[in-house]
């Protein structure tokens, strides 16, 4: 039986966002979201760790060619890098672009792209919004 | 296949302690705890990584309000920050303030404070090289 190995690569992107729920008054929004409600948005340098798992190819000694993984993820991140998440991407029209929600969106997009790779699975992503907060998304197999 | 999302926040506190067991003699204490047995105590900058899981609330997009979580955690850490654990925190009066026992103390307190079995994982860094973990 061959063991699966995981491989993690780090990516970086920068984006701005704003937390605002249209259903709530200004006071309610400020109470829940604090300084995240600033009308012009604010930004972060996000660190994204992508972990894939699969068997090692006998031909290459790799789970996936790192430059291939880099290409796939960077293509996805183009849509987010140096963008205002609320308005420049289609994912947060009815969702607040919190770290949790952004991580779920990225997990979905990366997972779909990797679905074509036989025996490789997207194990987990970790998204740091600041040095002291991050969201993980993973799938139990 | 189930997809799970978690949120982790990192907090820190600084405290002094001494590892010394009443049930061991002086020689044995030095043997077991080495420099951590220093009679006058010593201190650390502790760091905790606290992970909660759950479905993000559709209204807030968050698993738990960050402000509320910070408030709960900081009010607990306030009891430890800049304190001598063995002398100033009653839990450690008759319990050794090892990383294992501190992470267990924090887990019990935080699990009750946060409620709803949202607390998923807790990692306590004693130094950059030592960490202790508890999880569901």
Cα end-to-end separation of chain A: 18 Å
How many individual β-strands of chain A? Answer: 5
Q: Show unreliable segments of chain A.
A: none
What is Rg of chain B? 17 Å
Largest sheet: number of strands, sense, barrel closure of chain A: 5 strands, mixed
Offer a concise description of the structure.
In chain A, 28% of the residues lie in helices and 33% in strands. With 141 residues, chain A is α+β, with helices and mostly antiparallel strands.
What does this structure look like?
The complex is a heterodimer of chains A (141) and B (136). Chain A has 141 residues and is an alpha+beta fold. Helices cover 28% and strands 33% of the residues of chain A. Chain A is built from four helices and five strands. A five-stranded mixed β-sheet of chain A has the order 3-1-2-4-5. Chain B has a single domain, classed as 6-pyruvoyl tetrahydropterin synthase/QueD (Tetrahydropterin Synthase, Chain A, 2-Layer Sandwich). Chain B contains four helices and five strands; from the N terminus they run βαβαβααββ. The interface between A and B is medium-sized, with 28 and 22 residues. β5 of chain A pairs antiparallel with β1 of chain B, so a sheet runs across the interface.
SSE arrangement:
The complex is a heterodimer of chains A (141) and B (136).
Chain A: E1 5-17, H1 26-33, E2 42-54, H2 66-77, E3 83-84, H3 85-88, H4 99-114, E4 121-130, E5 133-140
Chain B: E1 2-17, H1 26-33, E2 42-53, H2 66-77, E3 83-84, H3 85-88, H4 99-114, E4 119-125, E5 131-135
Parallel strand pairs in B: 1-3
Antiparallel strand pairs in B: 1-2, 2-4, 4-5
Helix pairs in contact in B: 2-4
List the keywords.
heterodimer; A: 141 residues; alpha+beta; Tetrahydropterin Synthase, Chain A; five-stranded mixed sheet; 4 helices; elongated; B: 136 residues; 29% helix
């Amino acid at each position: 039986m061959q063991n699966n190995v995981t491989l993690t690569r780090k990516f970086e992107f920068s984006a701005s966002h704003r937390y605002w729920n249209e259903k709530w008054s200004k006071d309610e929004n400020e109470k829940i979201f604090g300084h995240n409600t600033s009308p012009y948005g604010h930004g972060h340098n996000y660190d994204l760790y992508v972990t894939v798992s699969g068997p090692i190819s006998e031909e290459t000694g790799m789970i996936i060619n790192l430059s291939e993984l880099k290409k796939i993820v960077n293509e996805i991140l183009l849509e987010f890098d140096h963008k205002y998440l609320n308005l420049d991407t289609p994912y947060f029209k009815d969702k607040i672009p919190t770290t949790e929600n952004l991580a779920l969106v990225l997990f979905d997009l990366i997972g779909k792209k990797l679905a074509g790779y036989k025996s490789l699975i997207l194990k987990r992503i970790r998204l740091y919004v600041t040095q002291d907060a991050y969201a993980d998304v993973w799938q139990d197999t | 296949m189930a997809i799970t999302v978690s949120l982790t926040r990192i907090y820190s506190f600084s405290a002094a302690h001494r590892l010394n067991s009443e049930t061991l003699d002086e020689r044995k204490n030095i043997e077991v705890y080495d420099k951590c047995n220093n009679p006058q105590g010593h201190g650390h900058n502790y760091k905790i990584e606290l992970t909660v899981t759950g479905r993000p609330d559709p209204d807030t997009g968050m698993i738990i309000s960050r402000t509320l979580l910070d408030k709960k955690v900081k009010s607990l850490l306030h009891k430890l920050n800049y304190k001598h654990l063995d002398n100033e925190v009653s839990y450690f009066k008759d319990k050794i303030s090892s990383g294992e026992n501190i992470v267990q103390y924090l887990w019990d307190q935080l699990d009750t404070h946060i409620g709803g079995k949202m607390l998923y994982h807790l990692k306590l860094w004693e130094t950059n090289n030592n960490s202790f973990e508890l999880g569901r």
